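[Discussion] Sanity-checking designs against the backbone

I'm trying to build intuition for which residues belong where. Below is a structure token string of 223 positions. I'd appreciate it if someone posts a full sequence so I can compare it with mine line by line.
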């Protein structure tokens, strides 16, 4: 039963890391959408150019004082078509980010099920490990032949538990990463400042809750 538990936990761990890859693939997609939202909002929040900005601007207006140029400056040097395009871009990016969260949440739910499967596997393996230890103690040969078998059982027990613990740790990191993304998307609006959005983009790409060292260790177990 111990070997069966080890085989089962390895299968769970493999499925878990595959789902981690799926989540990781979504992150840069969401990052691009967030940057797109930032760029669109930066355009809409751009301060208008005034005639009194500088002598150079005034000279350009005087040299090209057509009805079209005057109308353009009266509108704050904002092209109506560009404004419409950027408003549409904001809407598209925001919808894309909500879709990203929906897909990420589905993966997170899959991971949660795998965490529960791993915990159940550990719980089921413990009684069998105790039975094997008891069997060894009642067997004179086992007692006289040394602690090799008992130590082997302990190692197997730790192996199964270690995988479950590693799965739990990575799931916790990913859940925090998702929560951060969820809060960022929920806070987006037309009043978001450029510096605020820049911080969001940086945090999204850096993924501060993810420990690369732990993830690299986990992938070594797969390979």
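Best answer:
Here's mine. Compare freely.
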């Amino acid at each position: 039963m111990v070997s069966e538990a080890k085989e089962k936990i390895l299968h769970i761990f493999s499925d878990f890391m595959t789902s981690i890859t799926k989540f990781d693939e979504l992150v840069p997609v969401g990052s691009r959408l967030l940057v797109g939202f930032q760029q669109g909002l930066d355009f809409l929040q751009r301060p208008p150019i005034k005639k009194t900005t500088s002598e150079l601007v005034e000279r350009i207006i005087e040299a090209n004082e057509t009805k079209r140029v005057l109308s353009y400056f009266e509108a704050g040097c904002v092209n109506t078509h560009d404004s419409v395009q950027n408003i549409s871009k904001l809407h598209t990016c925001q919808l894309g980010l909500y879709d990203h969260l929906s897909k990420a949440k589905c993966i997170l739910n899959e991971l949660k099920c795998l965490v529960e499967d791993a915990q159940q596997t550990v719980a089921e393996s413990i009684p069998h490990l105790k039975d094997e230890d008891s069997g060894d103690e009642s067997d004179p040969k086992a007692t006289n032949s040394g602690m090799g078998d008992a130590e082997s059982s302990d190692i197997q027990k730790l192996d199964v538990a270690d995988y479950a613990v590693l799965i739990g740790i990575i799931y916790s990191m990913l859940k925090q990463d998702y929560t951060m993304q969820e809060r960022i998307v929920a806070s987006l609006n037309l009043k978001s400042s450029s510096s605020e959005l820049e911080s969001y983009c940086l945090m999204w790409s850096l993924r501060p809750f993810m420990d690369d060292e732990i993830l690299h260790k986990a992938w070594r177990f797969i390979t």
